[in-house]
């Protein structure tokens, strides 16, 4: 950051965790703020003020400023930024359908990163009246594109990145920064009888009505099976009525203290998402962290979160077929050996997602935006990023005559197992790879050098395990052997 501007990192989000309608976006901002503060950053979360909450509060070392209602927080937050303009060093601007448009009031040298949790274009059409939906789509699309188009954007998954490119048509760098998992230390005490547990806010968009409707079929095949719903929300009353109407055995826990919630989750055999789509599924990762496999429909977002056959299952078809899929999963998990294997794989997958990694990803995005502004200040022309390709470069350490630790570009991740050095290179094309090999002083024709296209698992796992580079990548220009095994049919470079 330049010496002329402040050092405070401002996080803008329309709600915080004390808001009665708080959800995953609020958890993301809260945990990221806490971790950034732990790392020595001065963080202020600017958000709305629901009844009964103080205007100012300090939580886990970071400051909270609450202003206005769910809609008035937007102009009030801009006024707050104007008043504290000299103190602002960077901004993470959360777009929960509508962003804060903070670049309109911040200094030109201040990096503003847009955090997009979901793309709401289709949701607006379903949830709002036609006129309001048109306005909301314009604010999320053309208006946001005009303000943020070339700025760095943070998303939680590859599916969200694709939506930002295709639906919102942003041109700048799009960085995948998943959320962490708070459930990694949850004790696993699986119930003696089949139990499906879903943790999260009860809303119509999650299609929990389909899961409730499916439970009579599940209970016909597994008479002792139960569905446990943990969380509150506007859909609870309707779900309770539906459960009584169809004769489903459903336990509604409401919102629970963390320890009680974790105990219910740790007793589960399975968690389920009946959603028609979304950009990420943090509740499934949380369940995996507790050793609970996940079952979800094969739709956007869920295909990022669930590794089919390893951490759970993806199912095709309509929600009407959900009951049969849940029944099959419970039958498979009745085998204690299979259940233990799935639990271990689920925990390993969830262990990739840490709030330390989330904070590091956000800081990387801020650094990329800062570098972009610096290039612009020095008169370099803006160019469309466009290339979201991420490749895995694998080079024997013995073939490297240069210093690989100093050859990385901003945003790249490098690891070494002592024998092979592997780099996860974002936005790299053939010329970039050749340039890196030249800096490493590596013979480009060496047959031991390989370049692979990264798959979703590489991007989502913060890519810290060298063994995953081959296991989770597809070869470029080389044959690929597809092995169907009991590990879920991973692809390996031939």
UniProtKB/TrEMBL annotation:
SUPFAM superfamilies xrefs: UDP-Glycosyltransferase/glycogen phosphorylase
Gene Ontology BP term (one): carbohydrate derivative biosynthetic process
Pfam families: Glyco_trans_1_4, Glyco_transf_4
Keywords attached to this entry: Glycosyltransferase, Transferase
GO molecular function: hexosyltransferase activity
Alphabetized InterPro entries for the sequence: Glyco_trans_4-like_N (IPR028098), Glycosyltransferase_grp1 (IPR050194)
Residue ranges occupied by any Glycosyltransferase subfamily 4-like N-terminal domain in the UniProt entry: 23-182
Full protein name: Glycosyltransferase involved in cell wall biosynthesis
């Amino acid at each position: 950051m330049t010496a002329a501007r402040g050092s405070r990192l401002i996080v803008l989000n329309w709600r915080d965790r004390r808001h009665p309608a708080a959800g995953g976006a609020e958890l993301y901002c809260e945990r990221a703020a806490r971790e950034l503060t732990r790392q020595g950053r001065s963080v202020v979360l600017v958000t709305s003020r629901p009844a009964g909450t103080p205007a100012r509060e300090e939580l886990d070392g970071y400051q909270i400023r609450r202003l206005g209602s769910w809609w008035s927080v937007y102009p009030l937050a801009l006024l707050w930024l104007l008043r504290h303009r000299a103190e602002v060093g960077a901004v993470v601007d959360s777009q929960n359908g509508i962003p804060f448009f903070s670049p309109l009031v911040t200094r030109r040298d201040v990096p503003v990163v847009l955090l997009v949790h979901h793309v709401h274009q289709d949701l607006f059409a379903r949830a709002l009246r036609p006129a309001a939906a048109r306005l909301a789509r314009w604010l999320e699309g053309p208006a946001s594109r005009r303000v943020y188009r070339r700025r760095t954007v943070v998303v939680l998954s590859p599916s969200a990145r694709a939506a930002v490119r295709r639906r919102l048509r942003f041109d700048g760098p799009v960085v995948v920064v998943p959320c962490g998992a708070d459930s990694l230390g949850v004790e696993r005490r699986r119930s003696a009888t089949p139990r499906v547990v879903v943790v999260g806010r009860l809303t119509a968009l999650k299609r929990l009505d389909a899961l409730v409707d499916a439970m009579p079929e599940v209970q016909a095949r597994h008479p002792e099976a139960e569905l446990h719903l943990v969380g509150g929300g506007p859909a609870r009353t309707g779900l309770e009525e539906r459960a009584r109407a169809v004769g489903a055995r459903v336990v509604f826990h409401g919102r629970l203290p963390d320890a009680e919630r974790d105990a219910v989750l740790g007793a589960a055999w399975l968690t389920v998402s009946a959603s028609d789509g979304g950009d990420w599924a943090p509740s499934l990762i949380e369940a995996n962290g507790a050793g609970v496999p996940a079952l979800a429909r094969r739709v956007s977002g869920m295909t990022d979160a669930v590794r089919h056959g390893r951490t759970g299952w993806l199912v095709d078809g309509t929600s009407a077929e959900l009951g049969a899929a849940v029944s099959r999963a419970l039958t498979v998990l009745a085998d204690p050996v299979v259940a233990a294997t799935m639990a271990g794989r689920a925990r390993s997958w969830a262990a990739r997602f840490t709030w330390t990694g989330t904070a590091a990803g956000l800081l990387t995005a801020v650094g990329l935006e800062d570098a972009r502004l610096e290039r612009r200040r020095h008169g370099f022309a803006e160019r469309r990023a466009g290339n979201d390709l991420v490749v895995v470069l694998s080079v024997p350490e013995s073939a490297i005559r240069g210093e690989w630790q100093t050859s990385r570009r901003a945003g790249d991740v490098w690891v070494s197992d002592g024998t092979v050095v592997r780099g996860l290179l974002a936005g790299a094309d053939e010329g970039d790879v050749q340039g890196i090999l030249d800096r490493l002083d590596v013979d480009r024709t060496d047959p031991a050098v390989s370049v692979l296209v990264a798959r979703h698992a590489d991007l989502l796992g913060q890519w810290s395990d060298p063994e995953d580079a081959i296991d989770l990548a597809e070869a470029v220009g080389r044959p690929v052997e597809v092995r169907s095994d009991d590990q879920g049919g991973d692809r390996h470079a031939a």
